[in-house]
Amino acid sequence: MRTRLDSTAVIDSEPGGDTDTMSSGTNFASSVSATHVSATAVATIAWLSASDTPIVVPVYQRQYRWDIGGCEQLLSDVRAVADAPDGQTHFIGSILSTASAEDSDAHLVLIDGQQRITTLMLLVAALHHTLREDDPALATELERVLVRTNDPARTKLRPHRAWADVFESVVLDRRAPGDETRESRFDDNYAFFRSQIRPAEAAHIWRGLERLEHVAITLGPDANAQQTFESLNSTGEPLRDHELIHNYVLMGLSHSEQIEIEDEYWVPIEQNTGEQIGDFWRHYLVMLTGREVTVVGERGVYDTFRTEFPRLDLATLRQRAAQWRSHSEIYRTLLDPSRATEDAVGRQLGYLNTFGRGMYPLTMRLVREHRDAALSTPELIDALEKLQSLLLRRTVVGVSTDRLVARLCRAAAISRDALVRAIARITPSDERTRVGLKYSPLPHAPYVLARLAGDVDAATFDVEHIVPMAPSDEWSPDGVRRWSELSEDEQNSFRALAPTLGNLTLLEQTLFDRAFDASFAQKKAVYRSSDIELTQTLADLDGWSTAAITARTQHLSTLFLSVWKRPAVVSIDDDNLTPILDAIARRGWPRGWQREFDYVEFRGEHWEVPDIRYLFNRIFHRLWADSRQSVIDFSARRGGPVYPATAWNGHWDELGDGQYLYMGWDSKYMLTAVQGVLDEAGWASEVFVKYSYIGNAMK
Q1: Which H or E run includes 98?
Q2: What is the bridge-based pairing of β-strands 55-56 and 157-158?
Q3: pTM of the model
Q4: What DSSP character marks residue 276?
Q5: 290: which of 2, 306, 393, 409 fits an S-S bond (Cβ 3.0–4.6 Å)?
Q6: 544, 486 Cβ separation under 8 angstroms
Q7: Is-contact 653 617, C-beta < 8 A?
Q8: Cβ neighbours of residue 469 under 8 Å, at least 6 residues apart?
Q9: Strand, helix or coil for residue 669
Q10: Dist. CA 428–CA 197, nearest whole Å
């Protein structure tokens, strides 16, 4: 393996052949020989430019799959390393290849790395086509990366023959009739790079590209290519988000500075959060940004952290790290409410934990404001009660409690009144809740019954089903008729109501076994012995019937609605609408995307819009008519999706006045653009999507 010792890069011009030494401005060095493998640290662009040997993607390789999200990250990395001080580089991994066995057509067979190399070629092509008229010298440098000197009509990279022609037509900018509306990842990713690169920054992008590095691994003729490939891709565990954050925070500091940050800040954060440290960072970032943070299939937490906390000088890092540590202390209290300094607050935090940790981002903010004396204890308790009402009522009526917290964090950042209005909007009404309590199984029964019984300790009681869930043939509701003697309709009615509020009560654990599967007449004596008034009153009834269950449900529902109140500031009950800012970003085009939405609520209008592509088009057309400057400002800052010409292949839609909307983006990019332009216009809070059954099931 060649290790870094000096300022030259050793680049294999031919597999197993001679080497050329080129000055690269990076630190590379000589090699230690191996029997079947040659591994060389190289500057990626110099490696691609150095030889005319074609790089061939074998037929067994998968199709090109990088999406715009991956292209965005690559371009961001290139820009970041271009901004870095002299000597800084960016490592893109290893590229594994082997020499062809065909002497008549010498080439490298690309075993691992085709996705990265292909995307780099598309980026270089976009840069080349952007500046070829304005900077011929740099355009010539770029051509050396893309095409063979002895055959400029062919690209150095030869993809799978099924899509080689498409790739070459993009990289060489050769349009054929009909290509304008062709759909391919090559076209889309090239279009993204073209849209993001301005002629004025071409030299800057080139500087970043020249600082990319990789390890070029070339296999000899007797090497086991499959085993080497599996070793590169299958060994070791990928770093988790919090581990990436840890490395990111400490990297670049001196050893003594690393020790300081580690001991004074990071170790306490780890101690406070334990195994939940990954959730802590995600919840902290949701609290900070007011936006959902993607975790499945992406480095969403780490990427969000890097966006919120660009490289920090030591003084700023100390300040930020102190804030992280402080929030981790709050998080520790959320995980273990017994640590709360006030019993009343600890009790409410314990209640809230009944529903999981989904509200932790908002709860962290509220507890922090309480610690900072910006929120009194009664105000904090009131807010925590409202959150419990929101979660419990939505669960009772069968409405999802997912993806609620980001919108509430945004509201809390505005004012306490805004938070109350936001909670009220999505809290089901008394009427819907009563229906749910009457016919649906009672969720979180120990918690609900304990609070209805006067906030008793649920841990010392068991939930008693007055009609057992599975009565024996001898069980009797009235002391006269046995279960086996009831009609089928009566049995079915009892079964349907058995898990509902009216058929449930609490019993001390010492009494519970005595009541198990006993007839109602036998249970009455047990109920009379209970210290819970809610249970004692059952002993006064002559028998137990579906009418008795209904009557008790009505009584307890009234009590339920007085404990878990709905804020009375609005009359909206939102039918599980999702604010556009909380809509789910899907990478690529997942199965079912054409029917993701039932409809969209746009500023009081009802739009029958089934998918993000349709919504993207309609939003930009609407804002072009009603808030044009917001579209212009957003597109100028983001580099699209509106352009003054149809400058590359793909689907375009004319907005008017010589401006065109590019429609070739993927699902994630389109949603992000919709969110961004609505935010720019100040309309984001007035736009909601209703997911369809398919949309809710999509991954």
Answers
A1: strand 90-99
A2: parallel
A3: 0.78
A4: G
A5: 409
A6: no
A7: yes
A8: 495, 498, 499
A9: helix
A10: 48
